[in-house]
Amino acid sequence: MVQLKKNDSIVRIDKGELVSYTVLGHEFIHQKGSPGWGSADTEMFPVIGPVNEAGFRVKTPKGEAVQDQHGHLRQMDYTVEHQTDTSAVFAKEYQSGTEVYNSKFPEKSTEEALSWPYDFRFEKSFLLTDDSFEIRFKVSGEEGMPFMLGYHPAFKLHTQLPVISAKDKEISLDEVLAVGSRALQVADCTSITLKDEKEITIETEGFGSFMCWTEVRNMICIEPITFYPYAVEQVNLYQGFQQLGQEAVFKVLLKPGN
Predict the structure, then answer these.
(1) Tens-place pLDDT, residues 14-30
(2) What is the pLDDT of residues 160-183, one digit of tens each?
(3) Torsions phi, psi of 245, nearest 5?
(4) In which element (H, E) is residue 13 found?
(5) Where are the domains of the chain?
(6) Alpha carbon of residue 63 to chain centroid
(7) Its quaternary structure (predicted)?
(8) Burial, 221: exposed, middle or buried (Cβ in 10 Å; 0-12, 13-18, 19+)?
């Protein structure tokens, strides 16, 4: 377990997963073991969304890739690259064509192994400052590699009637619950504020949109995304890809309020 500390803020990271962010003793992150989701955060890469209706196949310029929901990156382990009292860097490296075991098999998937026809390196870094907490992602690899990226953090809810404020609009928890597993899209948006017992603002660079998901009242996932996967049929998921240059950098800034 990696712990970062700055003034009254404490972050705990378990094998690259953000499992706790407290400010003045207030916990902002959904806790494993609580109802709703078995994780606290994860990444969606190189695809976002389900692919079961497309036979777990995604079109790429190098042919079809075998992928499961939200991609295969989450099935790989992080290694610690660097750590200080207020920062930490984790990385995953993938060699094209390598089969990665799919933890959803066989209960939730017919595919035992997932693969991708491109090499890549995925870096996740954390930085705790005086008044905020930054999570940064850096993707490098083969130039022209198609990909999507989504960050999937879960926030703990302390009240019954939290409000999500985005683009001068307020979204209730009931509105998110009503959409169900598809997740509520918040398009063309780079900043969302979760108004609960304590406020927290999620500001982003590089993503462009959000989607919000929960099936319970004690947590909510507010997920920065590069593409909303339900905008197309699953067989056309490739339409949401962007192409990698030398590298791509994405940022998520968590800013606690009152």
Answers:
(1) 999 999 999 999 999 99
(2) 999 999 988 999 999 999 999 999
(3) -90, -140
(4) strand 9-14
(5) 24-256
(6) 26
(7) Monomer.
(8) buried
Residue range 74-99, pLDDT digits in tens = 999 999 999 999 999 999 999 999 99
CATH domain 24-256 topology: Beta-galactosidase; Chain A, domain 5 (2.70.98)
Span between the terminal Cα atoms of the chain, in Å: 28
The one-letter amino acid at 244: L
- What is the residue-wise DSSP string for 146-215? EE--EEEEEEE--SSS-EEEETTEEEEHHHHHHHGGG-EEE-S-SEEEEESSSEEEEEEES--EEEEE-S
Q: Compute the radius of gyration of the chain from its Cα atoms.
A: 18
* Residue 14 Cα distances to 78, 92, 104, 163, angstroms: 10, 15, 21, 29
Nearest to 243 by CA among 137, 147, 142: 147
- Average confidence (pLDDT) over 125-129: 97
Q: What distance in Å separates the CA atoms of residue 49 and residue 184, rounded to the nearest whole number?
A: 13
pTM of the predicted protein model: 0.96
